[in-house]
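sorry for the late reply, my laptop died twice this morning and i had to redo everyting from scratch. anyway the thing you sent over, i finally got around to it. pasting the sequence first so we're on the same page, its 244 residues, then the predicted structure underneath. double check i copied it right bc i was rushing
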Amino acid sequence: MLVARQDESVIQPLKIQLLRTREQQNGTGIFYHVPLRREVLVPIDPKDWFNPHYNMGAAGLSSNIEGTFTHIPDGMKPVPLWGILGTIVQEEPVKIVDVDGKAVHRVVKGSPCMMEILEPDLKLIQEQNQMSLLLDANCVVHFNAQDYGTGTTEDGRQRDILRGSFWAVPQWYLIGYSRTEARSAAVDANQIDAILEYAQTKNADRAMNARAQSRADRAERDERRAAQPMPLRRGTNASYGVGR
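ok and here's the structure:
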C-alpha cells in the first residue's frame, strides 16, 4: 500500500488575518477567495484525519487542475480546494529557502499570503464575516520571488503584485476571531475623548427629551380621560351584605 508522509522539517507556523472585500467599492463584505480548480481527498470521519490509513489526504496531496481522482479509497471523499487571501500578522520570523537550499529567517509581517482551504471550511468562515478572523496554521510556506515585470496587465492589474507574496499549504489550521482588533476612525486619544464627550452629551439630551415627552404624554392622557363622561358603574354591593 502506498504510504505518504509529510516532511515535518518544512512545516512552520504561520498566522494570517483574512481580508474582506470592501462594500464601499461594490464588494460584498465577504473574504477574498478563489477556486483552485483542484480536489483533495479527506476522511469522511473528521476523527480519522491523522489516522495513518488516510495519510494520503493528510499529506495534502491534490488532483491536477481541473482533474478528478479515478479511484477514491473507502472512508474518504473528494473535497474542492480553494484559496483564501490574508495578511501575515505574526511577529516571529518566517523561514525562506533560496534555490541552493539555504534558509534565511525574515519578519514578513504585513505581507500578503494565500492559504489553501477546504470548501466546507471556507463556507463556514464566510458565514462569520462580521468578525475579524485569523487563521493560525502549521503549513508549508512558499515565497514568490518570480519577476513578473513592471506595468499593468490588460485588465488593469499591476504585473508585480504577486512578487514577494506567500503561499501556504496547511497541514492543519485553526480559526481564531477577534472583535478587539477592529479599528475605529479616531486618530488619537484626544479625538477619542472628544467623541465620547459628544456622545455622552447627546445621550443625556435624548434621555431628558424622552422623559419630558413621557410626562407630556401622561398629562395629555389624563386630560383626555377627565374630559370623558364617567363610565357606568358595574357590579352591586349586595354581595357584601350592603342594602339588605
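The longest strand covers residues 76-88.
thats about all i looked at so far, will dig more tmrw
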